[in-house]
Structures are given as C-alpha cells and as structure tokens.
Amino acid sequence: MFRVRDFTWGIAATGVIARTVGAAIVAEPGMRVGAVGSRNPQRAQALAAALGAESAYGSYERLCADPAVDAIYVATPHTEHLQVAEAAIAAGKAVLCEKPLAATVDDAEKMVRLAREAGVFLMEAMWMRFNPLIRLIAADARFGDIRSVQASFGFAMPYDPAHRLWAPELGGGSLLDLGVYPFGLAQLLLGMPTGLRITGSLAPSGVDAEAGGVLLYPGGRRAFVETPCWGITRTRPAL
C-alpha cells in the first residue's frame, strides 16, 4: 500500500501543552516528532525520549535549523512566540503556533508579514475553529442569521506570582490564556465588533484576573463573553 513519507515535527518547549500536542502528533499515521527544543537541554532530552524523537536541542534556533524537521510547533510562553516563529520562518519551516498567535498586535503582524514574504505556512493553533459542531454552526444556513452569542470559559487558578499565568513578562492574564476562546467564538460567528464594553479585575501582578463584556455589531447583534473564576484564593465552604 502506498504511504506518504512521515511528516516530521519539531516541538519548541516542553510544558504540558507541548507534551499533549506531541503525543497527538505521534499517534497520527504519517506524523512523527523528530526533534524537541528547549532552553533546558535536560527537559528537551526527556520529552524527546518520551515522543520517540531522534534529536533534542538546548535552543530553539538549533531546533529550527534541523534539516530533518518539516514544521515547528511553538508551545513557548506567549511573549516568545515571535522569536521562535521568526527563527522557524527564516529556516523555511512551516509554523503552527499555540494560541494566542502573539502577545501583541505588532508581534502578530510581524509574524504574518515574515511568513508571507518567505512563502511559509503560518497558523494559530486554535483547535476550536476545527471543532465539527462549531464549523457546522458557522457554515450551515439552516441556523439562520446569528443574532447573539453567549460564551464563557474559565477555571479556578489560585494566585501564584511564580506561575507564568500570573507573570506579565510572560504574557500572563486571563484574556490571553482563556479569553481567546469565547472572544474567538464570537468573532468566528459574528465577525469583528464595531464596539465593546469590557470590565474585570486585576491580579496583584497587574495582569487581568478575569474579564467579561459585551461586543457590539451592526444591526443590533451582540456577544456576551467572559473569562470567569480566575484568581480564586478562598477555599470553597464546606456543604
């Protein structure tokens, strides 16, 4: 039976998401992880061994330069997405970047520009856009004219200034980590809003601990979105 050669991925970073996506890649026929990169060589070696990858690198630049790798999956903290994507694009590698695509609009626009200039594939790893039910709702005329979207996603995350989710220098905060899902769903179904009203609260580190708001669209359409439950520091009372 004819089989296309294995498509080889390089994994940038070694955290929970990197491990989860790496495991999904090796479980897919025709896909494999060929290399792992991290600033911590020991962690790169450990994940490479777990995924059956031949190579482990102590830098993202060396990972991107590996000639055996076809595409780079970027699973670093948000603020490092541009740096890794830039190295991958320069090496001619396709890039699948964990959401959010970048920590700032300027970084995202630069990534898109570099990819277009190099003729290299670049995509944000927003799984929600590939969910069969969401794709059906977005494309099937039987659902009619969507007038209102209500979306909420959050979880309890006690404040820990040492954790990346609470660190401003790592792109922490509820909106970039959780809010991309409800806001992204609203954008997928209703497009870009013409106005918005947002409220929320800040963590002691200055990042957004929670947020909610209304997105406004032409013709009275609207979306109610929120990223609740961040920063819960109190224990739940006993029943």
Give a brief rundown of this model.
The protein has 239 residues and is an alpha/beta fold. It has helices spanning 16-26, 41-51, 60-65, 81-90, 105-118, 132-139, 174-190, and strands spanning 7-12, 31-37, 55-57, 71-74, 94-98, 122-125, 148-152, 195-202, 208-216, 222-227.
Report on the structure:
- 32% of the residues lie in helices and 24% in strands.
- It is built from seven helices and ten strands.
- Helix 4 runs parallel beside helix 5 (105-118).
- It is globular and about 55 Å long.
- The model is unreliable at 233-239 (pLDDT under 50).
List the defining traits of the structure above:
alpha/beta, globular, 7 helices, 4-stranded mixed sheet, 32% helix, Rossmann fold, single chain
Detail the topology: elements first, then pairings.
Layout lengths: L6 E6 L3 H11 L4 E7 L3 H11 L3 E3 L2 H6 L5 E4 L6 H10 L3 E5 L6 H14 L3 E4 L6 H8 L8 E5 L21 H17 L4 E8 L5 E9 L5 E6 L12
Parallel strand pairs: 1-2, 1-4, 2-3, 4-5, 5-6, 7-10
Antiparallel strand pairs: 8-9, 9-10
Helix pairs in contact: 4-5
Organism: Nonomuraea diastatica
Family: Belongs to the Gfo/Idh/MocA family.
Keywords: Oxidoreductase
Strand portion = 15-25%
Mean pLDDT score, rounded?
Answer: 91
What is the number of helical segments per DSSP (H or I, 4+ residues)?
Answer: 7
Strand order of the largest sheet: 3-2-1-4-5-6
Instruction: Return the CATH architecture of the largest domain.
Output: 3-Layer(aba) Sandwich
How many beta-strand elements? 10
How many structural domains are formed by the residues? 2
Radius of gyration: 20 Å
Low-confidence stretches: 233-239
Instruction: For the record, give the distance between the C-alpha atoms at the N and C termini, rounded to a whole number.
Output: 61 Å
Q: What is the N-to-C order of secondary-structure elements (H for helix, E for strand)? A: EHEHEHEHEHEHEHEEE
Helical residue percent? 25-40%
The main pleated sheet reads as: 6 strands, parallel
Shape: globular
